[in-house]
Amino acid sequence: MTREQITNNELGALIHHALVSDSEQVVPPGLTERVIQKLVRRNILRELIFELLLKGILVLVSLAVLTGVLVWIKGSNILAFLYTYFINNWQPIISILILALITILIDQIGLRFYSAFKKGARLKV
Amino acid sequence: MDDRTLIQKVIDGDRPAIELLVEKHKNLVWHIIISMTGHNIDCEDLFQEVFLQVFKGLRRFRADARLSTWIGSITHHICVDYLRKRKKEMDYQNLVANQKPAAGILTDISWKQSENEDLNQVILAAIARLPADYRTVITLYHLDERSYSEIAEITGMPDGTVKSYISRGRNLLRKTLITLIPDLAEMLSDF
């Protein structure tokens, strides 16, 4: 007597065998490493930017406190004086700020990112 | 290392833990991507996108689900979004609409009985012609050996639908194989 049907178990085994033998089901070599590198880079960058933002907030808060103290000591005229000073010297002030920003970005993000990535440092996600 | 410890270490930025997490789940992620989208140039980008999303969402992960099924469901979502965006005829929408799948499943598959290794190719070709959701559940069930409930969690389908898709998919494959290789059942009993 000939058999015409394949049982579920036989079919399951055939499917499993075929899928296991399928080279497309294998993760391409190097992909995992690339993903890990990307994740580590991303984590490092996120950590550094977060740190820089905290520092920036700290500086702004300090400036606000300093201004408050100046206003308290010298009266509100100091605000008008600072405003006039900024308007009269906006070009050098903006140039210095841009230069400082670029230096801070290179120092706090660029160089630290490079060195942390090279070391494979432990940094928070 | 259990899932909770692994997650905490990954959140703490431990590189070996990140490597372990990716290594542990890479096959599941890859299998879902391949079965849903077919092998194409975007698969590697999707693979990267999945792990980026996983890392973004790790802090929100609730321990009431298994990590692997959670990662699987993220993969499934990303693939669904990808298929929607691509709007290619991957049969996904047809399948959702419950249309009769794979009408031309037999076309361009051939069986050369002289070559035993050809059987795997025939089966793979037949699987490739199944609708995306059938392929996905069959791959998860037969290759990754996931349970019905795990597949349901990953794909967001009810358990019954998963069972039904596996059964229908297998029946389609069975018909295809019997048509192409009429004496396959006999051959199998010889082993």
Residue windows where pLDDT falls under 50 for at least 5 positions of chain B: 99-105
Helical content band of chain B: 55-70%
Which chain pair has the greatest contact?
A-B, 39 and 44 residues
Mean pLDDT of chain B: 82
Backbone shape of chain A: rod-shaped
Gross morphology of chain B:
elongated
Query: pLDDT average of chain A, as an integer?
Result: 86
What is the string of helix and strand elements of chain A? HHHH
- Share of helix among residues of chain A? over 70%
Radius of gyration of chain B: 19 Å
What structural class do you assign from the helix and strand content of chain B?
Answer: mainly alpha
Query: Main beta sheet of chain A, described?
Result: none
Distance between the termini of chain A: 65 Å
Structure description:
The complex is a heterodimer of chains A (125) and B (191). Chain A is mostly helical and 125 residues long. Chain A is built from 4 helices and no strands. In chain A, α2 (31-74) runs antiparallel to α4 (90-119). The longest helix of chain A has 44 residues, at 31-74. Chain A starts with 7 loop residues before the first helix and ends in a 6-residue tail after the last helix. The relative contact order of chain A is 0.09. The model of chain A has no long low-confidence stretch (mean pLDDT 86). Chain B is mainly alpha-helical and 191 residues long. Helix content of chain B is 69%, strand content 0%. Chain B has helices spanning 3-11, 15-37, 43-57, 67-86, 92-96, 118-128, 132-142, 148-155, 159-180, 184-190. The radius of gyration of chain B is 19 Å and the shape is elongated. The model of chain B is unreliable at 99-105 (pLDDT under 50). Chain A binds chain B through residues 2-6, 8, 10-12, 14-22, 24-28, 31-32, 34-36, 38-40, 42-43, 47, 120, 122-125, and chain B through 10-15, 18-19, 22-23, 26-27, 30-31, 34, 39, 44, 47-48, 51-52, 55, 58-59, 119-120, 123-124, 127, 138-139, 142-143, 170, 173-174, 177-178, 183-186, 188-189.
